[in-house]
Design brief:
The complex is a heterodimer of chains A (about 400) and B (about 350). Chain A is mainly β. In chain A, about 10% of the residues lie in helices and about 40% in strands. Chain B is built from 9 helices and 14 strands. The chains are: A mainly beta (about 400), B alpha+beta (about 350).
Chain lengths: ~400, ~350
């Protein structure tokens, strides 16, 4: 270990070698505010998870293909790398084959993940770890220029967090490419999600400390060719996502989806749905509201619906009689709104090209057995788009 | 007169030499050797200084069948204050000391023990800090291990079986994974309710709280205490035993203020909401930890319950707790299995 002093802050350098694991973990513990830890390029094989709990530090490698932290022999620790402190920048390294999550960040204020790679190298397998990038209960979260491959849940997953930017990143061969769950204020843009089961998921779930996900902008992304069979272990919510879904919005409020390319998604390019399982949580709102969809580009979709996984593809295939739309809304609203109508301000807005196909269901007609509960005319969903405010993270 | 003075001088010197080093406890850094603290008159035999008081807890955390010996030190003239439903509020300069060891043969204590590590929680000016010292092979000194350490250890169990384990001395961050509340390091064990039992002190058998009062290291404790049951006591109700076990093994993270609060699964003693206790609770961010099962607990169906699956597993990506376990706790698994089996919806 080399310590060189520059003003107050130190730069600490770790290179490959027999004691690299202990040296690196010790440096991660002993470094202090303002310090930078450089992990030299090379291959590092670890038996135990790493963790960082020091505020205001930078941990940097020499490139996501050059500095490689491999956890395939991991014997302890539920994740490859765990961060629990504030003001942390992680940059330019890779975390491979972690036994659990690759990079987990809990309760951090100010976490920058830049040019990192998380990967399970054996391809999509249910024995892969759940998440590549996993910030949870965090605030001011940046994921920029990262690559996530092979996660058995989500490649990039932001849960129960606030003020989030996920951009310029690539998520491939995961069950979910990018997932924003139970989170507030997120910009997801200029990412590529391909060859996942589902490309981009905006979800909200009950019985959690933070719920009521809202204010999410999804724009300038490509969610294309998501054609990997769902390999999530059963029991997980993403296990119900059918192969070939571009973007799914579930039970969030104030979501704006624009300027994206969705194409090559065999089940459906874009769906907007309610949380459909039973819940007794009185604080949970299971329906999407104030969703705005505009100016997206749709390529081929719905050509190979995965009716074996979950209910979405099967129901949609039956209702549409095989004529799968580009955009699907399940039409489910609270019972009172089924009868008296939705408040105007809560309504879905769709402003897309004429040739973009749309389908929604009138659940009441559906339940009462009307012969035609389906609506495909999107004109009535046209409205003035109220753009959501961009997300700003101080210093970014 | 002269002789008396000499005698006094020797006495003072001895006391001095044997004193616990109060300055080291509150110092900014940790010494490299455990013996420097002076907690023990004989370190390798683990004979404590007179002011280092042994204690036990009613229910304890499973740590791969290792044995634990605990001591508390409160600096002279000070007292820890009683806190309801929480650990005593120890004054600056206090230390909680815990040595992990395996007997060579559980059937015969005379054969001695292998000391693994001694963990310290030290009450400094700005709060608690955690550090662990790993014992050397000669078993005559323990050295500070910031990054933790792996010790391959074997012993013979009560049944005469040879057992071995890849024992991990935790690093400082891992200490905090369990010993944290609101992002600050905190002791977990010495709550009044968890100390409310008899202990065989060298002066005789006393209730630990009574003894602590007599030694004037605590200011008070209530006469009426609702204590958890000893989970190993088969005369107790199974629900109380399991809740006591889950509280001490899981509840420090799985509570609304713990590290695992984002899961919504809460296993601390005070939780009463069924969904948060895991009944028909779906996994949230569990990944392959779910083992393909749908709910944390399915009443009547232990083998369909994720909670039991993760207690049994030895896979680091699946097992619970996340740290500090490399073996399955067979006896607890059987108890939890029975608890779920007889549980009603």
């Amino acid at each position: 270990m080399l310590f060189s002093t520059h003003f107050q802050a130190k730069e600490i350098i770790i290179g490959p070698g027999e004691n690299a694991q202990e040296d690196l973990q010790e440096a991660l513990i002993l470094m202090s505010e303002g310090d930078t830890l450089l992990i030299k390029s090379g291959y590092y094989l670890f038996e135990d998870g790493l963790s960082l709990d020091v505020d205001d530090v930078t941990v940097i490698g020499e490139g996501m293909n050059e500095t490689v932290l491999d956890f395939k022999n991991q014997q302890s620790g539920a994740q490859g790398f765990l961060v629990t402190s504030n003001g942390v920048t992680l940059k330019d390294f890779a975390i491979l084959d972690a036994k659990g999550d690759a990079l987990k960040v809990i309760g951090s204020k100010g976490i920058n993940m830049i040019n990192l790679r998380t990967e399970w190298t054996g391809g999509p397998k249910s024995t892969n770890g759940a998440y590549g990038f996993y910030p949870v209960e965090s605030e001011d979260v940046l994921i920029d220029g990262c690559v996530a491959i092979g996660a058995s849940d989500a490649g990039i997953y932001v849960g129960q967090s606030k003020n989030i930017i996920v951009r310029n990143s690539i998520a491939q061969y995961n069950v979910a490419g990018i997932e924003i769950e139970n989170s507030y204020y997120a910009d997801v843009y200029n990412n590529l999600a391909s060859h996942n089961t589902g490309g981009i998921l905006i979800f909200d779930l009950p019985d959690l400390p933070q719920q009521g996900g809202h204010h999410i902008r999804v724009f300038d992304n490509k969610s294309v060719d998501n054609d990997t069979d769902n390999f999530a272990p059963e029991g997980n919510i993403v296990g119900e996502v059918p192969r070939g879904t571009g973007i799914i919005i579930m039970a969030n409020s104030d979501v704006e989806v624009f300027n994206n390319v969705m194409s090559g998604n065999g089940t459906v390019n874009l769906s907007i749905v309610s949380y459909s399982d039973e819940t007794d949580d009185p604080n949970y709102y299971p329906h999407p509201r104030r969703i705005q969809i505009h100016n997206n580009t749709y390529g081929p979709g719905g050509f190979d619906p995965d009716v074996e996984t979950g209910d979405l593809a099967k129901a949609l295939f039956e209702i549409s009689e095989g004529n799968m739309p580009d955009i699907f809304w399940d039409g489910v609203v609270p019972v009172s709104q089924m009868i008296f109508g939705q408040p105007k301000e809560d309504k879905l807005k769709v402003d897309e090209n004429r040739d973009v196909s749309f389908l929604t269901i009138s659940p009441i007609k559906y339940m009462l057995g009307f012969s035609n509960p389906v609506r495909t005319e999107k004109k009535e969903f046209k409205g003035v788009i109220n753009p959501l405010e961009p997300i700003v993270i101080d210093g970014i | 007169m002269k002789k008396k003075f000499q005698f006094l001088l020797v006495l003072i010197l001895c006391t001095r030499l044997n004193a616990v080093n109060d300055n080291l406890i509150i110092s900014d850094s940790f010494p490299s050797k455990l013996s420097e603290f002076g907690f023990f008159l004989d370190d390798s035999a683990q004979v404590p200084h007179e002011n280092v008081i042994p204690y036990e807890l009613i229910s304890t955390l499973f740590s791969d069948y290792s044995y634990k010996q605990r001591w508390v030190y409160v600096p002279g003239g000070k007292q820890a204050k009683y806190e309801e439903n929480w650990v005593f509020n120890f004054p600056v300069g206090s230390a909680l000391i815990k040595t992990f060891y395996y007997p060579v043969d559980e059937r015969d204590p005379e054969l001695g023990m292998n000391l693994l590590e001694t963990r310290l929680l030290l009450r400094k000016e700005n709060g608690w800090e955690a550090v662990s010292y790993a014992w050397n092979e000669e078993q005559n000194e323990a050295f500070k291990k910031i990054a933790g350490k792996t010790i391959n250890v074997s012993w013979t169990d009560f049944m005469g079986n040879d057992r071995d384990v890849r024992y991990r001395v935790p690093n400082v961050n891992q200490c905090k994974e369990c010993h944290a509340a609101k992002d600050k390091i905190t002791p977990i064990g010495p709550k009044a309710r968890n100390l409310n039992k008899k202990f065989d002190f060298k002066e005789g058998e006393f209730n630990q709280l009574t003894y602590w009062m007599n030694r004037q290291i605590i200011d008070d404790y209530p006469m009426e205490l609702v204590s958890p049951v000893d989970w190993t006591d088969e005369n107790e109700n199974i629900n109380d035993r399991v809740r006591s076990y889950l509280d001490v093994n899981c509840g420090h993270c799985h509570s609304p203020t713990g590290n695992a609060n984002s899961t919504g699964l809460y296993l601390h003693l005070d939780e009463t909401r069924k969904i948060h206790l895991g009944l028909y609770k779906k996994p949230v961010a569990t990944g392959r930890g779910s083992g393909g099962l749908k709910y944390s607990i399915v009443p009547g169906k232990p083998d369909e319950s994720i909670l039991l699956h993760r207690m049994i597993s030895l896979d680091p990506g699946v097992m619970m707790p996340e740290s500090g376990r490399a073996l399955s706790h067979t006896e607890a698994v059987e108890m939890v299995r029975e608890w779920i089996m007889v549980m009603e919806d």
